[in-house]
Here is the input.
Amino acid sequence: MFCRLGKRVSRFSGACLMLGPEVVTVTVLKDRQVASYDVVVAGGGPTGLSAALTLSRARRSVLVVDAGRPRNAAAGHVHNYLGREGAPPGELLALGRAEVQSYGGRVVGGTVVSAERTAEGGFRVELADGSRVDAWRLLVTTGLVDELPDVPGVAQRWGRDVLHCPYCHGWEVRDQAIGVLGTGPLSVHQALTFRQWSVDVTLFLHIAPELTADQAEQLSARGIEVVTGPVQALEVNQDRLTGVRLRDGRVFARQAVVVGPRALARAGLLTGLGLQAAEQEIDGHVVGSVVPADAAGATAVPGVWVAGNVADLRAQVLSSAAAGLGVAAAINADLIAQDTLLAVAAQRARRAATGAAAATAVTTGAVFSARSEQDLCDRVLGERRHGLQSELR
Here is the structure.
């Protein structure tokens, strides 16, 4: 069953409401209205907003639910985003929301806490405030959480002078005294990488694995000092990082510290659908988790899609936005296939009903009845059946 604009309403006994060029269906369950969309996007960062923009331009009804906790909230600027280099993260998101809304998409504040499959094949999505919405497709772009090393000062300086990505922050700390806090097998790689931005790099082994002979040689060749012993805390003076203090009391002057956080996917809302994040390892060391999906972003649960950092630990702002575009195109193609399937089924049902009615008419002789003859005359002659034709036509 379709509304007058051709949108699906088969799983509702509700009305079609206009939203820009789109249609949002509303049904009433126990005195509470539940709106339905083609796609609900959980997460309003660059990935989710990019996907919503693409889907809205494809004339899909889209709702973005944004918890307002972007991964890069602590950072002052976005880098390596062509055309928006140096923009504050909040400014980029505000522009994205406005663009989505300009094409009829909706963006609301809130947190998606769970989702369940409906009998009709879609999803019922519940928000933290108890409200619910329905969707034919669910796109999760909730990103990840950086689990920082448990060293005093790290969390407080995170995103300022405690960093992790050389391509996000390397230029800003160029030629400074940089320390790398060793927490795993990637710490040597981090030290060698940041050496590109400064000649003054020190690797604090802290709890990192013991260096191999090859690693020690590489670090020595690049002039990177290696300091053994556990780190006690970061030294801060007048709101500036000034050094790294070891448990034995030694203090090494540093202006920036690089850490390797464990990046954990925000995937709790998918538990009810049977999806869980899978750990990602490098050399036997867990570096994070992601929700498994194919190259297009489709998960093992039909109709559930993921994109951005929740599916790719390496994705930065620009590549996350690109992932949003890609997954949106895949979702739209999936919906087109479903729309076509529904349309074919409806057409077959109409033809079957017409054939059955005709067969009944022939059997009963009603095909040549006075009533059928009158209906045929009305359809063929219209107003001319009385020899008159309206001048208003």
Summary: The chain has two domains: 15-146+263-341, 149-260.
